[in-house]
Amino acid sequence: MTAREDFVVAVLPGDGIGPEVMAPCLDILGQAQRQVGGFTLTLNTVEAGAAFYAVSGESIPSTSLDHAQQADAILLAAMGLPSVRYPDGTEIAPQLELREQLGLYAGVRPIRTLAGLPLPLADRRGAHLDAVLIRESTEGLFAARGKTSYDGDKIARDTMVITRSVCERLFDFAFHLARERKESGAPGRVTCIDKANVLGGFAFFRKIFLERAELFPDIETDCAYVDAMALNLVKRPWDFDVMVTENMFGDILSDLGAALMGGMGLAPSADIGDDHAVFQPCHGSAPDIVGLGKANPTAMILSAAMMLEWLGARHDNSWCVVAGSLIRASVGRAFSSGVLLPFELGGAAGTDEIVACILEEMQAVDHAPT
Ligand code: ATP
Asked: pLDDT tens digit string along 119-140?
């Protein structure tokens, strides 16, 4: 592989607190780029979202879609506003359109706690949580979006779609991730989450999972029903390594995962396909805190770190990987003393203060690629 150094990133700040967390995130990316060197990011900010739809009638214009398609990576903050809806009552969600159109089947949702922050669950093992939920992000029950069939005002039907081709790539992604994590000391286990006891689509999902598992004999596998997983993720979340599930179940369980970390503002994510990837915090546009300076930018910043690590691995650029690690480690150090407590965790640290602490931690480090 030939190493690449120059990357184009399509930046979509979106709605609500989106621009409030995106702006400092770009500052952090700029700092990482200057401090580490060895790569450049050309950031192309483009329009999309509910506010854009309200004035233009389009959720994402074709020019924005073109920029996203041509970019090496896409960085997205938050899209959608409860007050702006399509005629059928659903919210404007270009991030879902991007996932479908760019084939971003693997929604990677790390459930990793940060030392120093109060957590809703006491970890009886004294260790921090480090698991990953992989949410299929292009089909499942979300495939029914915009295709609901109505029988007058009496019945509405939404159909779940599970395809072999997407499932095989999804499960292989999960097994490869478990293998990679195993090299760093994780158990090397993938748990398939479904409802195979009730719905044929999920029995098919599980059947393909077990078929693909045979190709990865070094990785342990198990299967669990989603209702049991909701219970077990609260009772014993530290027993899980990589989990893989359907789109709607993943949507719900990833918010549970964010809660285990302390709040929505701490949960990063990546939606990865074979040719494209979007990096976006798990949270939405949080209209209740817009303009108050209370948005926690950590999830956005950690999503940008995931982007750098993905770009570096994909294009054989170790500087990019180092820059991602620098950001991640600096976020960890910023919170580790327990003094920096975000508003969403009952503290008084707003967006600016959190960003200032992370930048300070970054500047305190002298980094060079290994
Ligand atoms: P979506 O359906 O678009 O994912 P949502 O309805 O799940 O969005 P969010 O916008 O994620 O809702 O907000 C859920 C709650 O979490 C709100 O109370 C919001 O203020 C809070 N929240 C979300 N993101 C952050 C953040 N970055 N910092 C602080 N609080 C946040």
From this structure: 888 766 656 899 999 999 999 9
Average pLDDT over residues 198-203: 98
Query: Tell me, what's the pLDDT at 128?
Result: 83
Q: Which of these, 74, 3, 5, 68, lies nearest to 33 by C-alpha position?
A: 5
Q: Is the pTM of this model over 0.85?
A: yes
94 ligand 1 Cβ < 6 A? no
CA distance 213 to 55: 49
Question: Distance, CA 286 to ligand 1 centroid (Å)?
Answer: 4
284 lines ligand 1 (CB under 6 A): yes
Burial of 346 (0-12, 13-18, 19+ CB in 10 A): exposed
Of 186, 194, 80, 213, nearest to 129 (Cα)? 186
Sheet holding 277-279, edge to edge: 40-45, 6-14, 73-78, 277-279, 270-272, 106-112, 130-136, 242-245, 189-194, 220-225
Distance CA 195, CA 25 (A): 38
Residues 32 and 359: beta-carbon distance below 8 Å: no
Average pLDDT, the chain: 95
Record the tokens describing residue 100, joined without a space.
């479908």
- The closest alpha carbon to 27, from 352, 295, 268, 267, belongs to 352
pLDDT digits (tens, 9 = 90+) for 148-187: 999 999 999 999 999 999 999 999 999 999 999 999 999 9
In angstroms, rounded to a whole number, what is the distance separating the alpha carbons of residues 234 and 240? 11
User: Ligand 1 centre from 283 Cα, in Å?
Assistant: 5
Q: Can you give the pLDDT at residue 368?
A: 52
CA-nearest residue, atom 9 of ligand 1:
284
How many angstroms does the Cα of residue 300 sit away from the middle of ligand 1? 12
